[in-house]
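Appendix B. Worked example

We walk through a single record from start to finish. Start with the input: the chain for Methyltransferase domain-containing protein, Dactylosporangium darangshiense, length 292.
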Amino acid sequence: MGQPELRRQPCTDTSAVHPSVITHLRCPVCRESLSPAERALRCARGHSFDIARQGYVDLTAGRAAHTGDTPEMVAARESLLAAGHFEPLAAAIAEEAAGPGLVVEVGAGTAHYLARYVRRNGNVGLAIDTSKAALRRAARADERIGAVRADIWQGLPIADGAATAILDVFAPRSGPEFARVLRPDGRLIVATPGEGHLAELVDALGLIRVDPAKRERLHKSLNPALVLAAARRIRTALALTRADAHALVGMGPSAWHTDPAAIARALEAMPEPIAATLDVDLTVWQLPRPNV
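Next comes the structure step. The output line below is what the pipeline stores for this chain.
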């Protein structure tokens, strides 16, 4: 069945989660379906989850293992992505259309990639993250996107076989959980840093390097629950301002391990534009086909 017709206008009700998203959500306590109540989602057994004033709902049931990105990291990511430097990656992800239905982004952050996907393909979207700061922005990304706080390691509060596509962009992965949530004909779209990703900044600023075994770890995390269907490489040269480069450092894992003042001093000594390379491996995964 196709998606219900949606009005393409800014969402002004920040207390609502789109009904086409709620249909696929499940109570994190008992796995029953959820229904909208007064500024909350509630299951038949009486478990209730408030919808925050900013528009997201917390379905961790108090079990999140970590709090996710800080407000400073989220602001840095929003600034960098708004500058358009990762546009080739966003466009490539959106091109991997998987048909009508629910698209889930795990580790969605501000839902930048998810919003691009649903706008191009007409889906409804569900942004999953553990960072409340990120979810406040994700809830405003597009009226067709619902934002939910959940931890993939604790299990996603989503019905079995609900998703036509899952997006995982530099985010944690669980092959069995992804396989449970995907439709039989669904697909998982994964973006991981390539060996040359931001190599110039890594060398100049002493940032965390890409694990040389990252590709092997990716396959181990997903297979045999999912099988590789396609792969491509997104590689392009970037010309960054100092502010862009500082945001790029501040939005990623290096933000936890570097001194912002030292990074600022190092960048101040570098002439603009600052050269860097966007190098990302984009892989598409599907459920194994049953033997006939």
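Two observations about the output. Confidence is low (pLDDT under 50) at residues 1-15. The first helix runs from residue 19 to 22.
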